Amino acid sequence: MSKTPRKDLHPRTQAVHHGIRRSQYGEMAEAIFLTQGFVYDSAEQAEARFQASGPDEFIYARYGNPTSRMFEDRIAALEGTEDAFATASGMAAVNGAMFSMCAPGDHVVAARALFGSCLYVLDLLARFGVEVSYVDGTDLDQWRDAIRPGTRAVFFETISNPGLEVIDMKAVADLAHAAGAVVVADNVFATPVFSRAVELGADVVVYSATKHIDGGGRALAGVICGSRDYIRNTVEPYLKHTGGAISPFHSWIMLNGLATMDLRVRAQADSAAAIATALQGHAGLTRVIYPGLPDHPQHDLAMAQMGSGGTMIAVEVAGGRDAAFAALNRLRIIRISNNLGDAKSIATHPATTTHQRLSDDAKAHLGITPGLLRISVGLEHAQDLIEDLRQALEG
Ligand SMILES: *Cc1c(COP(=O)(O)O)cnc(C)c1O
Predict the structure, then answer these.
(1) Shared-domain flag, residues 192 and 213
(2) pLDDT digits (tens, 9 = 90+) for 247-267
(3) Residue 5 pLDDT
(4) What local confidence, expressed as pLDDT, does residue 7 receive?
(5) pLDDT at 364 over 60
(6) Which of 87, 91, 366 has the most ligand 1 atoms within 8 A of CB, as the residue to mutate?
(7) How far apart are alpha carbons 172 and 213 in whole angstroms?
(8) What is the CATH number of the domain that holds 185?
(9) Which uninterrupted H or E stretch holds 272?
(10) What is the 3-state secondary structure (H, E, C) of 10-41?
C-alpha cells in the first residue's frame, strides 16, 4: 500500500507520485475505487473496524475511500500539513472547516473581502450563535482591534476575489496565535503551487479544488488541510455525518490535476504577468490590478509570500458597465463565465454576476466598480490573449 512519505522530494515529484495506493494488480495509474461500501472477512472484523479504523481501512465512502485518500495524502504532502480531508466542493470545505470547530458563543474574525458563499457560511455561523467580526483584511490595526483572547478562529482569502488584495498572513497569524485563535486560510487564488501558507502561520488551509487543482473546469471538489488531530477528530466526524463527501471519481480527476498543476499554474502566472504588463496604460482602461505589477499596493508582500503575482488579473474598463459589457461581448478567445483556474481563459463581470447580491455600498467598499472585469488567465498563448483583449477594448 502507500509508502512512507519522503520529505526530501520536490513538490513536482510529490505531485506525481505521493500517496499512491496500488491494489494487488499493481496498476500504474491511480485506480478509481467507485464503491460506496467495503466487504469484511468476518463479523468480528466489521465490529473491529467500526471501533477503530486504520489509515488504510475503509467503511463507507461518506467516511473515506481509497481514491479519495490518495488525493488527501498528496495534497497534504504538497501543502505541508499532516493530513487533509477531501469534500464535494470548495464550499463544503469552507463549511466543514468552520462549522466543525465552532460552537455558540465562539468568536470569529474574518476579512470582509470574501467570495459571496464564504460570507454566507459566516452569516450562518452567526445565525447559530457564533459572533463574527469583519475587518478590512489589509489593515493590521483592524485585525489587532478585533482579535481578542479566546477568539476561536480567523478566516480570510489570502488574495481576495475579485479585488486581488493580499493579506499579510504572517502578521495576521501572529496576532491570532497570541490570542489562541486558529488561522484558516482560503488559499484558492494563491494556488497550492505558490502557497507558503503553513510556513507563514496558517493552521488550516482550504481549497476549492474545482479551480487550479482540476485545472480543466470539469468537476467540483474541495479539500481541508490541517493537523492530523484537527482533520481526523474535528473535521472528519463533522463531514462524515453531514454528507459533504467527495465522489471517488472526482478525487481521481483531482489526483490527475495535481500531477500537472505545477507546470500549468506557472505557465498561467507567466502569461498573467505578460498580459498585465501589456495592458498597463491602455487608453481603454482606468486600472490594471495584478499583484505581480510593481504598482500594486501589496506588490512586495505578494512577491515575498508567493514569489508570483498569480493567475488572476482585474481590470477596470473606462466607461463603466456599458463599456465593460461591450468589451466582454467582443472577446473572441477568452470566454465569458465565472469559474477560474481553468485551462481556458475566462472573463467575469463581478458586479452583475458573482457579486451581484452585494449592496452598492459593499461593492464600492470592495472596489467592485461597474467597469471592473476579472480575468482568469488560461493556457492559451499569452500573445493571442493580449491581442484578444486589445481588440475587445478598442472595438
Ligand atoms: C470558488 C471558490 C470557493 C468555492 O468553491 P466551489 O468549489 O465552487 O464550491 C471558495 N472560495 C474561493 C476563494 C473561491 O474562488
Answers:
(1) yes
(2) 999 999 999 999 999 999 999
(3) 54
(4) 67
(5) yes
(6) 91
(7) 26
(8) 3.40.640.10
(9) helix 248-279
(10) CHHHHHHHCCCCCCCCCCCCCCCCCCCECCCC
Report which protein residue has its CA nearest ligand 1's atom 2: 208
Residue 64's domain comprises 11-257
Question: Is any ligand 1 atom within 6 A of the Cβ of residue 118?
Answer: yes
Which grid coordinates are listed for 327? 468589451
Of 257, 287, 322, which marks where a domain is finished?
A: 257
Residue 121 and residue 53 share a domain:
yes
Ligand 1: distance of its center to the CA of 206 in Å?
9
pLDDT value at residue 53: 86
Q: How confident is the model at residue 29 (pLDDT cuts 50, 70, 90)?
A: very high
Question: What is the secondary structure of 372-395 as a DSSP string?
Answer: EEEEE--SS-HHHHHHHHHHHHH-
Asked if the structure places residue 5 within a domain, the reply is no
Q: Indicate whether residue 222 lines ligand 1 (CB < 6 A).
A: yes
Q: Please, what is the Cα angle at 71 between 91 and 257, to 5 degrees?
A: 80
Extract the C-alpha cell encoding 219.
468537476
Mutation test residue for ligand 1: of 208, 213, 223, the one with most atoms within 8 Å of CB? 208
CA of 90 to the centre of ligand 1 (A): 5
Taking only the tens place, the pLDDT of each residue in 146-183 is 999 999 999 999 999 999 999 999 999 999 999 999 99
Structure confidence at residue 1 (pLDDT): 43
First CA to last CA distance, the chain: 58
Which residue carries 482568469 as its cell? 376
Q: Is residue 195 assigned to a domain?
A: yes
